[in-house]
Structures are given as C-alpha cells and as structure tokens.
Amino acid sequence: MNRERLMAAEANFLARYPEGFASPQMLEIAKKHKVEKMKKMAQDSFSPGQFGNADQVAAALVKVVSQSSLVSVFEKPKFRDAVLSMNDAEKIHLAQGLRDFLHGDQARGFGQMTGLLEEYKIAKWPILTVAPIYLRPHEEVFVKPTTAKNIIAHFELTGLHYQAKPTYEFYRAYREQILLMKRTLSEPLQVDNAAFCGFLMMVMEEKESRV
C-alpha cells in the first residue's frame, strides 16, 4: 500500500469536506443512493432466520439487486431473468450459498453461488457482493470491477491481482486491504466500506480531472 498517496487523498478530501461523510454534500449523495433503505431491506431479508424459504430468499436477492444503485442497469435484468428461470433445486442452491456466505462458511457459500451463476453467465462481482455490503457494511466490501482495478493500481496494493472471474481468494484479500486502508485514516473516514471505496474513487477521479 502506498501510504503517502493514501494520506494525501485524505488531506485533499478533508480540505474539501471538513466534516467528512457528515458533510451536507456527502449526506445528499447517501440519500440519492437510498443507503439506509437498502441496508434495512438487506437486514429484513437476509437475517439468519429468513433462510427457511428458498423462493423467498431468491426473490429478496432479486429485489436488492434490482433496487441497488451499485449494480449496473445491464446486469439487473439479466440476474432477474436468470433467477426466474431457475428450478426449485437451483433456488435452494442459491439460497444456501448466500446463507453460508453471510452467516457460515464464507468460502463455501461464495463458491456455491459463483458456480451456479456461472451456468447462467451472470457470475459478476457486483451481483455477488451487493447483499453482503448492505447487510454488514462495516465488515464486507462491494467489488465494482473498474473501481477495484483503479484502487489496486493507484494505491499500489501489493499481492492483489484483479480477476474478472470472481473468486473468494481475491474477495478476502481485497477486503483485508480495504479495511487496513480505512484503519490507517482518521475518524471522519471511519465509515462503511462502500462509502470508503466511494471516497477512494472520488479522489482518484479528481486527480485525473486535474491532469
């Protein structure tokens, strides 16, 4: 990790937004992304006691994906159509994978979901990581391909090599690096991980606009 670049990013961000994510501009962005609504939806849909009905879990995941501003408008209908075409056994497989990823053996759950979604050609990083980031926003990470690649390159995150094909190994390593970066910075940036990655993206975009 290039600590110097990270500290410079923090200084530039706080010079512009002294209150950090509590600033009016940042609160307005959070409102536009319906952050609190999406968190509540995930908590209501994916708590441990909600996994008794696979159809219900699959429908809830489609709803979260469809309403999330984090997921591409091109991926939303593809995921919805894939789930609609799944048989009962596949929906059970999807629900079990999500349950394990959120509440059990993460590696097994991630692999189970990925394997099933690969059959429908919709095993995409945003689809796989959108529910976790809303359910546990301070612990999990959302992987948006372009953002992840740029963060790795700009902040020189060693040992991380982005892959278009989702793997739990990359997810775990990327999450570890994001959490380490966040712990390095001051209190105004101790926010949920989606917002933190948004901060990293903002400072990179601002740097590019000045070049």
What's this model, at a glance?
The protein has 211 residues and is an all-alpha fold. Helix content is 69%, strand content 0%.
What does it look like?
This protein has 211 residues and is mainly alpha-helical. The protein has two domains: 102 residues; 88 residues, no CATH class. 69% of the residues lie in helices and 0% in strands. Helix 4 crosses helix 6. The protein is globular.
Mean pLDDT: 92
Percentage of residues in DSSP E strands: under 5%
Would you report the number of β strands? 0
Low-confidence stretches: none
Helix content: 55-70%
Cα Rg = 17 Å
In total, the number of domains comes to 2
Q: How many helices in DSSP terms?
A: 11
Backbone shape: globular
Structural class of the helix and strand makeup? mainly alpha
N- to C-terminal distance: 23 Å
* Biggest beta sheet summary: none
The arrangement of helices and strands along the chain is HHHHHHHHHHH
Question: What is the topological layout?
Answer:
Blueprint: H1 3-16, H2 24-32, H3 35-46, H4 54-67, H5 75-85, H6 88-103, H7 106-119, H8 125-135, H9 145-154, H10 168-184, H11 193-210
